[in-house]
């Protein structure tokens, strides 16, 4: 067995599981793929970044993993593989469920036909042996029907679990918001429909300083707070976490100026909060975000450029197209 499948005598899947458990990471398809690259001994920038982040015995947070994935391109490919595998599993399960349902219906019909034949034989008063054999066949048919019914119910339960797994694969484990993959799928759907949409990119100001000063535990709580505030103020519009300290909002049917009013209300609400570090009760200081909003062709790129302007224009502000 080579180094790609086993290291230090321990199966690779056990190493991956131990790593995820040690660092308190959710075993999502994205996280599993990133840790697989690290534990399998792959010589890549992504693996090197993980090694550097854990070299001093430090525990990785989900934001660290997201940052590494974003910096080294490790987030898109695992997600695509996970989505393809789920789609294939769904197709197989649907085919299996259809086969089971057809077999169950045929068995049920066959049983009814046999029962009708037995009734006719018994009315004639003869062929007792044939009737007995037929009754035994009926019992076997009913038993097979019960088994097929149980298999059908199990297939339905598995389809539900697959649907839940698909939903989890599109959720950010830390904030419970839709993740980058869910955002990209939604954006593609809207583009196909030709639906008008404004896109906002939001980035927490000085987030690295929060992590460096107070630790990743406090940083994670800040991420969850910002996610909740954006979600509350943006109503039915999709709020997703792109990765790290960056979020995106899809404002369906709103022009950039109207979308900016929603987003600026969230920004002002967050900036006015007086936050404290839970463990020490010391002031955390002002937490704010900057944002850029654009619509139309290449809205994502232009929203990112406007975010850049907001950052260099003093932060804690929303810039949008006219």
Structural commentary:
The structure is a single chain. The chain has 322 residues and is α+β, with helices and mostly antiparallel strands. The protein has 3 domains: 69 residues, no CATH class; 91 residues; 141 residues, Reverse transcriptase/Diguanylate cyclase domain (Alpha-Beta Plaits, 2-Layer Sandwich), CATH 3.30.70.270. Helix content is 63%, strand content 11%. The protein is built from 11 helices and 7 strands. It has a 5-stranded mixed beta sheet with strand order 4-5-3-6-7, with helices on both faces. Strands 1-2 form a two-stranded antiparallel ribbon. α1 packs across α2, α2 packs across α3 and α5 packs antiparallel against α6. It is elongated. The N terminus is likely disordered.
Strand content: 5-15%
The number of helices is 11
Low-confidence stretches: 1-9, 75-81
CATH H level, superfamily name of the largest domain: Reverse transcriptase/Diguanylate cyclase domain
User: Secondary-structure element order, as H and E?
Assistant: EEHHHHHHHEHHEEHEHE
Oligomer: single chain
Radius of gyration: 28 Å
Shape: elongated
CATH class of the largest domain: Alpha Beta
Task: Please name the CATH topology of the largest domain.
Answer: Alpha-Beta Plaits
- Sequence of strands across the biggest β-sheet: 4-5-3-6-7
Helix content class: 55-70%
Q: Count the beta strands.
A: 7
- Class by SSE composition: alpha+beta
Q: In CATH terms, what is the architecture of the largest domain?
A: 2-Layer Sandwich
Mean pLDDT over the full residue set: 79
Question: How many discrete domains?
Answer: 3
Largest sheet: 5 strands, mixed
Distance between the termini: 61 Å
